[in-house]
Amino acid sequence: MKRKAIGIISGKGGVGKTSLTAALASIVRTDNEINAIILDCDVDAPNLALILPAESNSKIESLDTFTTLKATFLEDKCVQCRQCIDDHFCEFNALKWEEENSIPTIDYLACEGCGACKVLCPEHAFEINTVKSGEIISYKTNITLPLIYGKTRLGSTTSGKLVSDVKEYAKQLDEFEDCNLILIDGPPGIGCPVIATVSGLDYIITITEPTPSGLHDLVRAIEVVQQFEIPFGIVINKFDLKSPFQDDFKEYIDNTGFYILGKIPFDLSIPKAMSYAEAVVDFAPNSDASLAIKAIYNNLKNALWNSR
Ligand code: SF4
Ligand code: SF4
Asked: Which CATH number do you get for residue 194?
């Protein structure tokens, strides 16, 4: 079977993206036709590892990444003229004046590494350097599949680059050669990390729920996917939620004709499974949610390998 890379994204956080990824990963490992690698590209809040921890004897590899630029102040060059503050060199308000020593200080979190202070200081008292921006962590999970995830460092401005690095890192694993499915837990939203995640994928699952914000953010997520002309299917989580918005949601789905990969009912097995840090298909294999996710997996396989 030809290798396929799929991403699970949502315009909005908290709609069940990671629960679905974990459940699909757990189903995949029992499918003899599939060799999968799992990626968590939600680098600003990676939590798939909580449900898929390392196998007890697995070695955990960690690689630091250095892609974020930050200013460094060179005190020995500074003549304390205060121009950097008085002329407002920094558009991001990252420069403050320290009265006690009469020197500027840099707010690390606010600094965007734009380089303006370096260019404008007449004494060349600022440098721009790369700093640690995050980590890539990989190991064999307790369900035997490899997991690779990125973790952004607080203050890093390069989450999208870290996502690309995670995807590249996966290609160097021994397991990559034989794998025919790359399953990616993507970030929420429509920003740089999402774009870096969906770029180059074969298929995308957009998960949502029938609420006003769910629909609003689904529309935005689909706009991103359509820019890349990648086939996609929608998963509606809590599809049977009693909500006055159900009619509007149904009308949107009916009018667009987008493919519904599956619907997951409201089922307390999912939050219970999460509280035990387990995939719902393992925690409650015969629950309504688990049966729905198994059906989604079958539809996904058809969409990936039988549609062309
Ligand atoms: S950093 Fe440059 S501009 Fe700011 S006080 Fe020092 S010399 Fe003046
Ligand atoms: S690099 Fe840019 S953002 Fe950072 S302190 Fe200098 S001017 Fe401000």
From this structure: 3.40.50.300
Ligand 1: atom nearest CA of 103 is 5
| Domain match, 178 and 53 both | yes
Closest C-alpha residue for ligand 2 atom 8: 90
Closest ligand 1 atom number to CA of residue 95:
4
Q: Which ligand is nearest to the CA of 76?
A: 1
Q: Is residue 139 very low, low, confident or very high in pLDDT (cuts 50, 70, 90)?
A: very high
Q: What is the pLDDT of residue 212?
A: 86
Residue 168 has pLDDT above 60, yes or no: yes
Over residues 188-198, the pLDDT tens digits come to 888 888 999 99
Examine the domain organization and report whether 182 and 280 are in the same domain.
Answer: yes
Q: Which residues line ligand 2 (CB under 6 A)?
A: 71, 89-90, 92, 94-95, 106, 111-117, 128
Going by DSSP bridges, is the β-strand pair 36-40/61-65 parallel, antiparallel, or unpaired? unpaired
Q: What domain range is 250 assigned to? A: 4-66+140-306
Please state, in angstroms and rounded to a whole number, the distance separating the CA atoms of residues 172 and 75.
42
